[in-house]
Design goal:
Length: about 800
């Protein structure tokens, strides 16, 4: 694996600066910082001091030196005597130096890199791409909306040897900015989302803005975009960039057409490379459909089949930052678009509002429209036209500039100067059974309005039988020899069952270890009284402070992470216990055989790091057909652990067996076992399921029952059909609660008064319909979604997934109720 690290010795050449003072030239650069408050570990940190208009970063150099930072990039001379033993490099621009470091790192890797630009939806497309590609790729991406001259290099710097694809967004506000971002990202694949009015003021005209954005793709193998955007299409053709375009209107590399829309999804026909197909998108508004088709087209470019792409995009979820529909008080619904407010975004949001059918009464709460580049009178005349065309019932306008709307908008409207003024008057509006679009620029803090409007009561529950959980724990304990320790997995909210309560019970019943996915989970357990040792399975450099503060124990699985924890421990002068993960065949995370001699020597020479355990993960311990492979894993683990022990010359725990391994491979018990899904009532090998008890019962209630006649339909798109007079119950659970849409149309069954009743029609966001004709059911009756009947395993089999997914999908808004007999 090729190293992409940069040493201090290389730094001055990379940034093109003058070395004023030098120290340890072999130090490897680990972190690039511009904000003194964001220092994680001083070892390997480089501070870029920027002399800005409102703040001078040079004023914080001495402070950072006292915290242990020893590498500084500066734009003006400073007293070097105050920072002895440091490397100091003088440059013309610290921002340019930052960009040069990221560009150098990017140049060391040959993975595919996708760059996204456009006026809107960069972040949405990036996050959706990450979602659909995450099962096949190790992804590095821009955090949040890091798309600026500083955000892009910080994003690209996160690249490491393990990543197999990069997804970065880039934004500009004026000319001569994109060239620098192109040199940093160096994309192979480009996506141009759309063009709108955002930042129009920074360009002479729309064509110039498009041309500037297209500079990002000057060396791309292919640019993905919607050919129907005529201005964009013309400039791309003129630039001669290789394209992989798509269209909803005519000829293109990928041709789509909308077959039909209902209230929750859009059916799309596609023709790509002479292959035709049909798939559903879980959206109906034009913006989401367009964004999803960018994602779908990218999948086709990457070589996914129509069937594979269709399966992935059907599972796309709306992002909370944009156009989130939320249940609110008094029968209302809120469309939360309190993220930004430009003219193009307003049009998109009003289109979304039009497709929400929960009520015919539509209210818009709107702030000043920013970054339009238009004269105020012209701008708000266009805003008024959009609002009138959308046929909204009432407008509430907040801000100083938007008062201009009074001159053009003739509909019902109330005007406020500040958000606080409106919140004081909020009770007088008495919103009832209406849909409210809340759209505001960030500075207006419209999330406060959403919080006041939102309804938070939800009556669907997940009951957790604590007695059953302890029964399962004891079933596995009975398989162990005396003295074998047990580590219980409480990651992912204890497989959906609830974190703190489960951990407290396991601590009371004497388990030896807990394991969580992330340091934040371990911190919350500590804050709730958990004193057991806690292993963190996915530590990062940014989580080391939390790990140290809460006495957590990180899993270390690769050389860079090992070096980071060694340097961190040395900088803090603290002893940190770690768990060394060995990859013996899972091919996921872990050191391999070829790494172990170097790892052992490095650990033995750094006494601040103590190995608490070495472990491996069995890839197929639940499958008899792969027993030979499992035995090879165990033999490899024995050899590697022996090498580690011989070098370290002190004892540590060994563990390999997961839940199925505990049952099927006694020789793999070693010093400790890791109990996961079995604790929660699922025996993944299927051999001992009758010994376990289901700990979770997912239940809801009947909201209403309707008597319907033969041949009538039920639900969206009339998917549910009845052949005889039937009783149809609406139950208060939907896919937003974790009840998957794959249960639609009879795939899923629920238990009502002891009778299995099929789902009829499509599972909706917050509710589902059930045929209760054969059950003696009444409004308010209890409905069992899973438990002892039907079981989680049965539901997983019906939907082609695994029990883990069913359990962990139960939404956080579902109340957990813990009980013991």
């Amino acid at each position: 694996m090729k190293s992409i690290d940069i040493s201090v010795e290389q730094l001055s050449t990379i940034v093109g600066g003058k070395v004023l003072q030098s120290a340890d030239s072999d130090t490897v650069i680990k972190q690039l910082i511009l904000d003194s408050r964001k220092l994680m570990a001083p070892a390997g940190a480089v501070f870029f001091a920027i002399d800005g208009k409102h703040h001078d970063g040079h004023a914080h150099i001495e402070e950072l030196f006292n915290k242990g930072v020893r590498i500084f990039i500066i734009e003006k001379n400073i007293p070097l005597a105050k920072i002895p033993g440091s490397t100091v490099i003088l440059v013309g621009s610290s921002v340019a130096a930052l960009q040069a470091c990221a560009a150098y790192r990017r140049a060391q890797v040959t993975i595919p890199v996708i760059a996204i630009t456009g006026s809107n939806a960069k972040t949405i497309v990036k996050e959706w791409l990450s979602q659909v590609l995450s099962t096949e790729y190790s992804i590095v991406k821009s955090p949040r909306s890091y798309n600026s001259q500083i955000g892009v290099p910080l994003s690209v710097w996160a690249l490491n040897e393990r990543h197999t694809i990069g997804i970065f967004e880039a934004g500009i506000s004026t000319t001569n900015e994109m060239q620098a971002l192109q040199k940093i990202i160096r994309p192979n694949i480009g996506i141009f989302t759309n063009i709108g009015s955002a930042h129009d003021e920074g360009f002479h005209n729309r064509q110039e803005k498009i041309r500037e954005k297209l500079k990002l793709f000057s060396a791309c193998d292919a640019l993905i975009y919607c050919k129907d955007q005529e201005e964009v299409d013309a400039e791309i053709r003129s630039a001669g960039i290789p394209v992989f375009d798509w269209s909803l209107k005519g000829k293109a590399t990928v041709e789509y057409s909308i077959i039909e829309k209902d209230s929750i999804q859009t059916k799309i026909k596609v023709l790509v490379k002479d292959t035709a197909g049909v798939f559903d998108l879980p959206f109906v508004d034009e913006a989401s459909v367009e964004n999803a088709l960018h994602v779908t087209t990218t999948l086709f470019y990457l070589g996914y089949s129509v069937q594979e792409a269709a399966r992935k995009v059907q599972l796309l979820l709306p992002l909370e930052m944009r156009l989130a529909l939320k249940e609110a008080n008094n029968g209302c619904y809120v469309i939360d678009d309190s993220y930004n407010n430009d003219l193009a975004g307003l049009s998109i949001a009003l289109d979304f509002l039009e497709h929400v059918k929960q009520s015919e009464i539509k209210t818009v709460i709107l702030s000043d429209v920013l970054e339009s580049g238009l004269d105020s009178a012209v701008l708000y005349k266009e805003v008024a036209a959009n609002l009138t065309a959308a046929r909204v019932h009432r407008v509430i306008a907040i801000g100083k500039q938007i008062q201009e709307l009074k001159k053009s908008y003739t509909g019902k409207a109330d005007y406020y100067t500040t958000t606080e003024d409106f919140l004081k008057d909020l009770p007088k509006f008495k919103f009832q059974k209406e849909v409210i679009l809340v759209k505001g620029a960030r500075v207006f803090q419209f999330e406060k309005i959403v919080s006041q409007l939102q309804h938070k009561v939800h009556e669907t529950v997940l009951e957790i039988n604590l007695d059953a959980l302890i029964h399962n724990l004891n079933v596995y304990r009975s398989r162990l020899k005396t003295g074998t320790k047990i580590m219980c997995m409480v990651k992912a909210f204890s497989y959906g069952s609830g974190g703190f309560e489960i951990a407290q019970l396991l601590q009371y019943h004497g388990v030896d270890y807990l394991a969580v996915a992330y340091a934040d989970e371990g911190a919350r357990l500590r804050e709730n009284g958990i004193t057991l040792p806690i292993m963190v399975m996915n530590p990062t450099l940014s989580s080391f402070d939390t790990i140290l503060r809460y006495e957590l124990e990180p899993e270390i699985y690769e050389p860079v992470l090992l070096q980071q924890i060694i340097e961190y421990a040395a900088a803090k002068n603290k002893h940190i216990g770690v768990h060394i993960k060995i990859d013996t065949g899972m091919k996921r995370l872990g050191f391999e055989q070829k790494d172990i001699n170097g790892v052992a020597v490095l650990l033995s020479s750094n006494p601040n790091i103590k190995v608490l355990s070495a472990f491996t993960h069995l890839a197929a311990s639940d499958s008899a057909e792969h027993d030979g492979f499992t035995q090879k894993q165990l033999s490899a683990f024995d050899a590697i652990a022996a090498t580690l022990k011989n070098t370290l010359r002190y004892p540590f725990l060994k563990h390999a067996a997961n839940s199925s391994g505990i049952m099927r491979f006694p020789e793999a018990h070693y010093d400790m076992v890791r109990l996961g899904i079995g604790l929660y009532g699922v025996e993944s090998a299927g051999l001992y399921q009758n010994e376990l008890q289901a700990i979770s019962v997912f239940k809801t209630h009947i909201s209403q029952i309707k008597e319907i006649s033969a041949e009538e339909s039920v639900g969206y798109s009339r998917k549910g059909r009845v052949a005889k007079a039937s009783r149809i119950a609406t139950i208060a659970v939907g896919y937003a609660d974790g009840y998957n849409r794959r249960f639609s149309n009879g795939v899923g069954e629920v238990l009502v008064n002891g009778v299995r009743c099929p789902i009829i029609g499509n599972v909706c966001m917050d509710m589902s319909m059930v045929d209760v004709t054969e059950a003696n059911a009444r409004q308010g009756d209890e409905v069992i979604l899973f438990g002892e009947n039907p079981t989680v395993t049965e539901l997983a089999q019906k939907t082609g997934t695994i029990a883990y997914e069913i359990l962990t999908s139960v939404g956080a808004r579902v109340k957990r109720i813990f009980y013991s007999a």
